[in-house]
Input
Amino acid sequence: MYGQMTAGSYCYIGPQGIVHGTTITVMNAGRQYLNVGDLSGKVLVTSGLGGMSGAQAKAAVISGCVGVIAEVSKEALTKRHNQGWLVEVTDNLDDLMQRIRDAKRKKVATSIGYHGNIVDIWERLVSELESTGDLLVDLGSDQTSCHNPFNGGYYPVQLTFDEANEMMHTDPARFKNLVQESLCRQVAAINKLADNGLYFWDYGNAFLLEASRAGADVKKDGDTTGTRFKYPSYVQDIMGDIFSMGFGPFRWVCTSTDPNDLATTDEIAASVLEDIIASGVPDSTKQQYEDNIKWIKQASQHELVVGSQARILYSDQQGRVAIATAFNRAVHEGRIKAAVVISRDHHDVSGTDSPFRETSNIYDGSAFCADMAVQNVIGDSFRGATWVSLHNGGGVGWGEVMNGGFGLVLDGSEQAGERAKMMLGWDVSNGVARRSWAGNANAKETICRAMEQNSKLTVTIPHQVQDDGLLDRALQS
Output
């Protein structure tokens, strides 16, 4: 396939995948950047309430912070508000600042939608800092569609929504200039706030890439790869280590379409992860399991199902195999009425090669290679996947990413259970091994533990270079 990916291989599950991923990202950002496990009273400022970015409002509330999300389209903003994902709405900056102050003081978990341009919010937050000394934002990101910035993915602050929609067609050259000017203004405001304690990250939407192309001050000093910016990609600093531990978005669909079957799978998945914790796991792994047990136990109350009776959670190889085999047994025993299809988001440990997102934390020079996703698809195909697919594009744009995915039908048979064990082992370990070869300590620890658990798995373990100047001397000679 050449075009935008479906997030999972022919396995679209609606918005809950991005809600869950954003929730996990925000929670881990709080731990890493703010050194807190409780985000009460902390403010996240970002933009976008569209098909995928709309998840930010829901995720902010689930993670316990104050989410402030700008949206230029009144239709999109109203849709999220009517849906119940967006708690509050305003189109007045003075009112917005007061709402932020009130929510911070009361430590209320809420989402505030601002009908207007995100640049106006960032610049107003700078004014508040300079006039009152108050830093009203703790965490910041952006989910405008910057992989397509000149055709409606990013709206420049200089124009109204309607003016932008007209100019991008009637005067595309002028529109491009305004977009790039707006990006530079946005980055300038973010830079000032970051100098005073804001923690900002790129959400894999090519925001920093397009800002750098526009001439904004985002380049990281000393970078020679073209993939390093002064602000990290959420993969580099937040999700990268999680991927390197083998955790990623595992998902499933109940083919019976019965909500009761989905509820049964929720119970099974939570029980399986609790049993794994009880058997003993490293603290870092335990934290990820606990986050996902909390998610799965609360998932039904957040009403995330759209169409397919489907669910998603982050798990590592051990958890995925245990959950899949438990589902297969439940189908065989009749506890689940029909087959369950397991899959995963492409945005995973092994499924995607993307130097500006999924593989942006691979620094050994191989980040621009697309071999991992291709190997993953081929390896899954003859280890038992029911189907596989290979996609180019998605999220960061065509030509910037290769995605590989699969679907595996669990029909309750013994053969399906064996296929799940064999295929899921490859599907996760392939990416963990790649990340260990790139020098990631978490990945090295994870792949060594995987080999201890599976005597048939053999992975070459890299040696750490003790002398950083060795390569330079070798090339000079």
Observations:
- The mean pLDDT is 90.
- The first strand starts at residue 43 and ends at 47.
- The chain is about 50% helix and 10% strand.
- Residues 414-437 form the longest helix (24 residues).
